[in-house]
Amino acid sequence: MKFRLKAFAIHLLASLLVAMASLYLVFHLWHPDPLQKAVGVTGIFLLVLAVDMVLGPLLTLVVASDAKKKTLKFDMAVIIACQIAAYLYGMHSIAVSRPVYVAFDVLRFEVVQADSVVRDESKAILPQFERNPWFKFHWAAVRPFQDAKEQNNRTFYELQTGISPTMQAHLYQSIEQAWPAMNARKHHLDELKKYNSPEVVQQILHQYPQTDSYLPLKAPVQDMAVLLDSRQRKIIKIVDLRPF
Q1: Mean pLDDT over each residue of the chain, to the nearest integer
Q2: Model pTM?
Q3: Residue 71 has what pLDDT?
Q4: For residues 182 and 113, what is the distance between their CA atoms, to the nearest angstrom?
Q5: Three-class secondary structure of residue 99 per DSSP
Q6: Alpha-carbon distance values, 130 to 23, 122, 161 (Å)
């Protein structure tokens, strides 16, 4: 019994260390607050931890009955191999859906996930957008269409493929170039009180006194608001408030 508990404790400790590192990666780097709610990654990640990090040590508790057990090494190797495979599969699923860009286009920002970015090799892409960032998302803006023909082409392409302009890397430009359009489309902060509790809005805005306006953020699970300091041309923060 002593050996069984010792093996379980060692396996559990190792699993917890991996879990802590994963928590930092998923919630601090890939999905900084509040993007984890906007994308809906929390439930998926907790499932990965529950199935992988908990099940592995429990199986060790079952099979590690005796240090002299003939099949112990084989049993442990199978458990650890399955645990690693399940962990990598789960983390890969989270990695390919991580937010890599928050892109402004015409009226609002949109969260763009890694597996949604389309790169056409026949079209020029700015160097900073040639590859998806691995750690923390980048801000971007969709280049304005030059004429009605280009506008129609973008609309038809999105209708036919489901690929919006915010997913097409060759249309990206730096966020600084979009400030005239962002200033033209910004919303007054009082509008947030129409769609959220006024007390919650006031509490959040109190933390960012330089904020003077906002733009909506479209996300896969929960739409949010992007606070702006339009006078200084600064993006302040993505906050968990309904934008409309």
Answers
A1: 91
A2: 0.86
A3: 79
A4: 22
A5: strand
A6: 28, 13, 21
